[in-house]
Specification:
- This is Acidobacterial duplicated orphan permease.
- By secondary structure, the protein is an alpha+beta fold.
- The chain is built from 14 helices and 17 strands.
- The strands form four sheets. Strands 1, 3, 4, 7, 8, 9, 10, 11, 12, 16 and 17 form an eleven-stranded mixed β-sheet that branches. A two-stranded antiparallel ribbon has the order 2-15.
- Helix 1 crosses helix 12, helix 2 runs antiparallel to helix 13 and helix 12 packs antiparallel against helix 13.
- The longest helix has 44 residues.
- It is elongated.
Length: 419
Amino acid sequence: MAILSLAWKSLWNRRFTALLTLLSIALSVALLLGVERLRQEARASFANTLTGTDLIVGARGGPVQLLLYAVFRLGDATNNISWQSYQDIARLPRVAWTVPLSLGDSHRGYRVVGTNQDYFRHYQYGREQRLALAKGAVFADLYEAVLGAEVAAKLGYRLEDGIILAHGAGDISFARHDDKPFRVAGILKPTGTPVDRTVHVSLQAIEAIHVDWQSGAPVPGRQVSAEQTRNLDLTPKAITAALVGLDAKIATFQVQRAINNYPEEPLLAILPGVALSQLWDLIGIAENALLVVSAFVVLVGLIGMLTALLTSLNARRREMAILRSVGARPAHVFALVMGEAAVLMLLGIAAGLGLLHALLLIAQPLLQNTFGLVITLGAPSLGEWQLLAALVLAGGLVGSLPAYLAYRHALVDGLSMRL
């Protein structure tokens, strides 16, 4: 304790330099832990995009591709599932519920999903959270739509507003379904998932807007009005994908095998958790690159501390010599410099943690509203404690170099004058 007290007083005498060194360490620690916490929360948020669903079913292709268009609304399906096949899947013995998804249209850049009421009953995200309406109700009429939170907020829609859907992922004027406008019936609460960026309509509505279309374009000379479509049979002919829930987890592989071997058409059933893990592995390179960059920032902070300690050594030769003259042994000098390094590291880590919490407290609402990331402000996790322990160890190693040089200084070297 006496050494630490002496180290503290020594640093206090050089407080301006010590403060700058401490600040660089604090910034490095805040950046490293911030990146680590964002990485963990982003991974958890990514994995919780879809929960409670046992299987995702689509046309045969790649599992990641199926996950992208069925859950993240990215890309397009290579093929559809016939309505008859979907009904056969729904009738399998261990299937408890199914949710059909029909993709292919958009509204001002946001994807449109045709589905049914089961979507709002069974779709879960996060920790088995269900979708909830912020305003209005689920679509009941043929030309009603339910908007995700981001769609309503970014486009400024309110209940009863009218919207026009466009054919395809773009919003090209000649590919719009202008003759069949929709009314906003409900707006969902934010979920931090792709649901926020989705316009939901009924499966029958998807059929209705394409009654007089063929091969992605209106049929010349044929026009069916919005009211006329209400009298037509709007049973879907095909859907893009389906979410499947089972009555027991143990039946997952049995049902998956039955769907993958479905004889009527080539289908693919994937486990959402496995596909999410595969997709995360693909995009995890950026995550690791960010971590490496933050590690280099920490290295720069440690080099700054080393530079500050080495620079002060020459100016403190007389101080060291006086310490030796009053009975301090080389080991005491070594411990003094190590104590200064320890004080700088511990105070830098504490300041870095405080800075990180302050920044997260300010940025938390922005991260949640913009990216759907909920960053917890609790104590460091086990992984973060391990990083901090590694930092303390690295600080000790960095401090040992100037401590060793001070240890080697001879008493006569400190008392003699250099010309």
